[in-house]
Amino acid sequence: MITEIPDLAQIMKHWGLTVLDFKKIKDVFKIKTEYGYKNLKVSPLVPQRLLFVHQAVRHLEKKGFDKMYPLIPALNGESYITDSRYAYTLFDWIEGRQCDFTVLSELSGATRILAEFHQKSTGFKPPEHSNMRNRLDKYLKHFEEHYHDLIIFKETALSMPGDAFADFYLSQVDFFLPMAAQAIAKLKTSCYSDLVTAARDSGCFAHGDPAARNFILTPADTIFIIDFDSCRLDLPVMDLIKFARRVLKKYHWDFETARILMESYNQIKPISATELEVMKAVLYFPQKFWRMAIRYFHNHDRHSPERALHKFNKYVSTRHELARLQLEFDNYGG
């Protein structure tokens, strides 16, 4: 995240605009200009990555996806300008607020926007030499590696007597290991590889970060999707399962909410039997359990040990609800 205020007046000259006022919001600047409010997004300068992301956004624009604001090209025609450290990209400002996913109408609306995003992403050809973050055909390998991590962490935890997090991990890991094993077994017997081949042939990409903060509800009750920095070559259904996990954990893994999500998505982009089969497999993998464990045992956790344990305990407290949802979802669409 940018820690200093750049020379905004000089930067905005590249678009022929004058800075009348501004406000920093995380990694963007809300800038008041003579032509209204603009969104100046700041990203690390990685040209190969920006090439992919910006071409993906332009592809959506060409396909008629209107639930985002397109890039505003600089006066020289480029999609961004740079000060040799950061890249600056300009959009019109979207007035509104983050969607509230405790309101089912907003949750359903955001799900339909995600489906339309995936629908319009087809036919994309990544630019040569771009950084596309290709995740196609990677999940089975990743799941097997993560399963191995969970076993290794048992040994690590046993070597840490008196460590509260390690002790708690040992008390819970045998509940989650069978979930991980089942995810791997289900994915192996699914048509996952066929789905990957079809995705390569059709050309598609995923948003990569379908979190509530990236869905904006405007005063006109229109929902926009924002922040495409995490775009990647991936199965759209992986975006959907990531979106569903983030939502469902807040609903204590309620199957009825999962059904609403699926039906909302299906209204725009019907989920195939093969995609549903893969979703059922992926839902079994305890991704967050693994992520919280690896952050702690590899000393990457940004929280204090007490805070890390609190968050871990909070996630684990819903394990039985998660297990119930997995079984209920297995019967969905069957």
List low-pLDDT spans. none
Instruction: Work out the helicity level.
Output: 40-55%
Helix count, DSSP H or I runs of 4 or more residues: 12
The CATH homologous superfamily of the largest domain is named Aminoglycoside phosphotransferase (APH), C-terminal lobe
Q: Which class best fits the helix and strand makeup?
A: alpha+beta
> Beta fraction of the residues?
5-15%
Distance between the termini: 45 Å
TL;DR?
This protein has 334 residues and is an alpha+beta fold. 51% of the residues lie in helices and 11% in strands. It contains twelve helices and eight strands.
Give keywords.
334 residues, alpha+beta, Phosphorylase Kinase, domain 1, Aminoglycoside 3'-phosphotransferase, Chain: A, domain 2, 2 domains, five-stranded antiparallel sheet, 51% helix, 11% strand
Description of the molecule:
The protein has 334 residues and is an alpha+beta fold. It folds into 2 domains: 8-93, Phosphorylase Kinase, domain 1, CATH 3.30.200; 104-330, Alpha-Beta Complex (Aminoglycoside 3'-phosphotransferase, Chain: A, domain 2). The protein has helices spanning 8-12, 47-62, 104-121, 139-158, 164-189, 192-202, 236-248, 255-268, 273-283, 287-297, 305-316, 319-330, and strands spanning 21-25, 28-33, 36-44, 81-82, 86-92, 97-98, 215-217, 223-225. The protein has a 5-stranded antiparallel beta sheet, with no helix packed on it. α3 (104-121) packs across α8, α4 crosses α10 and α10 (287-297) runs antiparallel to α11. The chain is globular and about 60 Å long. It starts with 7 loop residues before the first helix and ends with a helix. The mean pLDDT is 95.
